[in-house]
TrEMBL record:
The chain crosses the membrane at residues 27-50, 70-92, 220-240, 252-273. Keywords: Amino-acid transport, Cell membrane, Membrane, Transmembrane, Transmembrane helix, Transport. The keyword Membrane applies. Belongs to the binding-protein-dependent transport system permease family. This is Amino acid ABC transporter permease. InterPro entries: AA_ABC_transptr_permease_3TM, ArtM/GltK/GlnP/TcyL/YhdX-like, MetI-like, MetI-like_sf. Residues 68-271 form the ABC transmembrane type-1 domain. The keyword Repeat does not apply. It is found in: Cell membrane. It is a multi-pass membrane protein. The lineage of its organism: Bacteria, Bacillati, Actinomycetota, Actinomycetes, Cryptosporangiales. Its main location: membrane. It comes from Cryptosporangium japonicum.
Amino acid sequence: MTLTAHQPPDTADYAGRATGHVRWGHWAVGVVLLVLAAQLVRFLVFNPAFEWNVVGRYLFDPAVLRGLGTTILLAVAAMLVGLLLGTTIAACRLSAFAPLRWAGTAYVTVFRSIPPLVQLIFWFNLGYLLPRISVGVPFGPEFAGWSSNDLITPVTAAVLGLGLNEAAYLAEIVRGGLLGVDGGQREAAKSLGYSGWQTFARVTMPQAMRTIIPPTGSQFITVLKGTSLVSVIAMADLLYSVQTIYGRTYQVVPLLIVAVLWYLVVVSLFSLGQQRLERYFGRGAHR
């Protein structure tokens, strides 16, 4: 009886069969996706309930465009408030002075715990708790004062509610980005004679932007969609505008589609700008 050495299997044959299985799997997934896409198109095009003629009629309606402009302005204003205040709170949370850290932590905890809708309603009804807003020496004479009902308009309440809420989230985003910068960078800047502010503005912040921009962009999209909440305080944003129209015409679905299409357009355009910013601040890392 002759013993023969075990022959290893042909690895090339196994690789070929594995590649064949993967390709067949890709084809199967592609066919399934194609069928689903065809069903979706058929549902959208041939379902008369969508009333695409009504969508086309109101897509560029002046009232809808005014609501769209209000939505964009509210989102931009809220993000500016959030960025300025959030960066300040992030600096407080990173401060070596304990009371500043405690104040920053308390702000983030409180405003992240309260739903944005509750905050909007609270600011809109601030006059109930504080009928008059004044400026002066604490516990001393008053220099100037105004009625809260005159100051807290729906616009003011919307910017305050959305901006202060965003500041809590952006503070954590900025803090995480700053902590991600290597400490040796700050030490090198100090050795070159940079002051604390110069180190922050010229060394730390530009490097942190690479990690700050993506989540900040996501927060802008969140606040853009969150502007739909201001309809509860009679603010004429995009959603409120279409609600006003379908409250008169009873064409709910096509008017909601109008709002959906405009949200898609604005978010898509902003996403393109965000990608350009990410490439700009990440060019050194990519290289």
